[in-house]
Amino acid sequence: MGRVKLTIVPPGKPLVGRAVPPGSKSITNRALLLAGLARGTSRLTGALRSDDTRYMADALRAMGVTIDEPDETTFVVTGMGKLLPPSEPLFLGNAGTATRFLTAAVASVDGTVVVDGDEHMRKRPIAPLVAALKSLGIDVEAPTGCPPVTVHGIGHFASGRVEIDAGLSSQYVSALLMAAPLAPKGANAPVTVALAGAEIGARGYVDLTLAAMQTFGAKVEQIDAASWKVEPTGYRAADFVIEPDASAATYLWAAEVLTGGAIDLGVPNGAFTQPDAKAYDVISKFPYLPAEIDGSQMQDAVPTLAVLAAFNETPVRFTGIANLRVKECDRVRALSLGLNEIREGLATEEGDDLIVASDPSLAGQTLPAAINTFADHRIAMSFALAGLKIGGITILDPDCVAKTFPDYWDVLASLGVAYTDIE
Ligand SMILES: O=C(O)C1=C[C@@H](OP(=O)(O)O)[C@@H](O)[C@H](O)C1
Ligand SMILES: C=C(OP(=O)(O)O)C(=O)O
């Protein structure tokens, strides 16, 4: 069981030191899946070990993949070139990547697979992905439009053209792309994956998917901005070095500018290939963040930017963030509730936009506020930033950070942050 709460003691000085973010969640879960689908042994280094990657690894183990963890950041994955039917439903917690990616991939299992998650995941939509799989002739159902999903696989993925509406989640596109090489070699091959609408969340996640697929031997051709052709090659084992997590890096970048510190992340800002690395340029403008920030291409960085905006010189409107309402929690709501808990009127929701009023005089005040994190790691990690400048900020359910950054509180402590009221 995790702790109930902790209160952050503002350090009252710049945060200075070295703090390397953990491995990328997005890349680790892609690499685990593709290595698990390949025949042979793959070595994944620099990987993230957290709740989300454990759910993915355990699900693959339940389908016959051997995964060793020789040290804190390495997975050694030995696959047989196919997944076997698991004896029980796959339980994937609230890991969106694991849930969406496996829903498509298990269509290649010869047998029935149930993909399920916790009470939060059971509210996160998966109907567009299920509809796309059905359109390929795959026998799949998700009666509530959310997990659990039951997939009756026939031993391989299906060939043909599939359209996907990715307005709610780019993970649906990634899921179809990664399953596509598992189609049978034959008449209808290759698989074409096409976007149904122009709308898609952060495109950069599809680029991460394509890069990982290529590392594991897939052949993908981009036909145009909205469609891809994937050859039925299957996957081959590969060694893969995983870069640090850019979303995790945003908390450290923000902590640096908020406290006027100097934090060495051990990786140059330009070295990230993940979408959230775009947040660096925005964060470095603090306390003169722009009046409008389009969060659509760096969605997981929005909580970080929204809390930072509270200390900005001028108000900030966040646009392009509608799908934050279907993440681990409704993040637009959680951010506005948390900011208003600190100071009434600090945030307003306008449709799906979030407007942060901004009040540089917050810094140095004591404003006791208990932040409901809704079990969402990013709400916990971003509101911790407010606690670097305001006394009395209490984070409820702080150990929900284990989803992607289990050492978060220790990393802040190593930079000089202290906590009280820990229960
Ligand atoms: O593909 C990925 O690795 C991810 C895609 C994004 O989700 P959506 O595609 O659901 O917006 C992001 O929020 C999530 O943390 C990771
Ligand atoms: C949205 C997130 O995760 P996921 O969709 O992978 O559960 C996140 O990590 O912010």
Automatic annotation (TrEMBL):
Establish whether keyword Transmembrane helix is in the entry.
no
- Chain positions recorded as 3-phosphoshikimate binding sites: K25, S26, R30, S169, S170, Q171, D300, N323, K327
The record places the active site at D300
Q: What InterPro entries does UniProt report for this protein, alphabetically? A: Enolpyruvate_Tfrase_dom, Enolpyruvate_Tfrase_sf, EPSP_synthase, EPSP_synthase_CS, RNA3'P_cycl/enolpyr_Trfase_a/b
Whether Metal-binding counts among this entry's keywords is no
Q: Where does it reside? A: Cytoplasm
Reactions it catalyzes: 3-phosphoshikimate + phosphoenolpyruvate = 5-O-(1-carboxyvinyl)-3-phosphoshikimate + phosphate
In this chain, phosphoenolpyruvate is annotated as bound at K25, G96, R124, Q171, R331, R378, K403
EC numbers, comma separated: 2.5.1.19
Domain of life where this protein originates: Bacteria
Going by the UniProt record, its keywords in alphabetical order are:
Amino-acid biosynthesis, Aromatic amino acid biosynthesis, Cytoplasm, Transferase
Q: Where is the Enolpyruvate transferase domain?
A: 11-265, 287-412
Tell me the pathway.
Metabolic intermediate biosynthesis; chorismate biosynthesis; chorismate from D-erythrose 4-phosphate and phosphoenolpyruvate: step 6/7
Q: Which family does it belong to?
A: Belongs to the EPSP synthase family.
The UniProt function text for this chain reads: Catalyzes the transfer of the enolpyruvyl moiety of phosphoenolpyruvate (PEP) to the 5-hydroxyl of shikimate-3-phosphate (S3P) to produce enolpyruvyl shikimate-3-phosphate and inorganic phosphate.
This protein's assembly is summarised as: Monomer.
Q: Quote the HAMAP family the UniProt record gives.
A: EPSP_synth
Spell out the protein name for this chain.
3-phosphoshikimate 1-carboxyvinyltransferase
